[in-house]
Design a protein that fits this description.
7 strands, two-stranded antiparallel ribbon, single chain, 282 residues, five-stranded mixed β-sheet, alpha/beta
């Protein structure tokens, strides 16, 4: 399983975050779904190809929306860091499998399946089609007989401020971060909103931005001291200074070796690395 998917699931698998995303994007901020009304659903489904080979496909996150123990809907969230060329077909596969499973396992009324795609790209907008018909060369006489299938794609970094204000969970912090990152690549986090799931948020930012500094805050044990993105910014600045000092010390010792003032053995001992690694740096 890709690292990206694992990280996203950690944050979005929390019922309050999941409900907040659906309420914010689907219901425009109206609190229609409560965290207590959500129940984890299986993310795995299977299908056969033209050679009767069985394949397994997996959603990112899926939950049942239930009321009085009755299933109202199956809700799915898919996460993307880059533009998927054939996203409508992928979502059709997920949703179709969910409907087929209902027909095979339940005798009651079939409930709707809703899947939304969260796109976290900051450099370019979603440019690929969002419905199946856009991919097809349909003869005019068949147009009325070809069914379409459309997907809802939310470009997080391009949300408006009033849209982000609809969120009430940690996802509001995440959305604010990506919106500001899109507008300014050198954006220094300045959001004072208190974060509930610090570990999950920082891991998501680390993977989605490919900036491991956010994750290193956790590995260094500093995550316990982080309560907002302002705290994150302070620790990033401090780590930058420390890494800069370490880099400066390394360069000085390398120069001493090049000038034959220190031997390779002496320099390696000072840097606490083996001689082979030191020679590679030189």
């Amino acid at each position: 399983m890709p690292e990206k998917d694992i990280t996203e699931k950690i944050l979005m698998n929390h019922n309050d975050v999941f409900a907040d995303i659906i309420n914010g994007l689907v219901f425009r901020g109206e609190q229609k779904i409560k965290a207590t009304e959500l129940e984890n659903a299986s993310v795995h489904s299977q299908y056969k190809d033209q050679n009767d080979t069985i394949h397994e496909q997996e959603r990112d996150v899926a939950k049942f929306w239930k009321e009085n123990n009755a299933k109202i809907s199956l809700l799915g969230i898919e996460n993307q860091t880059c533009v998927e060329p054939h996203m409508p077909f992928r979502i059709l596969g997920y949703d179709g499998a969910s409907y087929k499973e209902q027909l095979m396992t339940t005798r009651g009324q079939v409930y709707p399946v809703v899947t939304i795609v969260l796109y976290f790209g900051t450099k370019k907008r979603w440019t690929k089609p969002r419905n199946i018909k856009s991919y097809l060369a349909i003869p005019p006489e068949l147009e009325a007989f070809v069914n379409d299938y459309q997907v809802y794609i939310c470009e997080i970094a391009w949300l408006k401020e009033e849209e982000i204000e609809c969120f009430q969970s940690d996802f509001k912090v995440v959305a604010n971060f990506f919106r500001n990152k899109r507008k300014n690549r050198n954006y220094i986090p300045d959001d004072k909103t208190e974060i509930k799931y610090v570990d999950e948020v920082l891991k998501l930012l680390s993977v989605m931005t490919k900036d491991r500094r956010y994750e290193r805050i956790l590995s260094g044990g500093e995550g316990r001291e982080v309560h907002s993105m302002c705290d994150v910014a302070e620790r990033l600045e401090q780590r930058g200074k420390e890494e800069g000092r370490a880099e400066g010390r390394l360069e000085i010792i390398l120069e001493l070796v090049r000038d034959h003032i220190l031997t390779v053995q002496e320099a390696a001992k000072r840097l606490d690395i083996d001689e082979k690694e030191l020679l590679e740096k030189i």
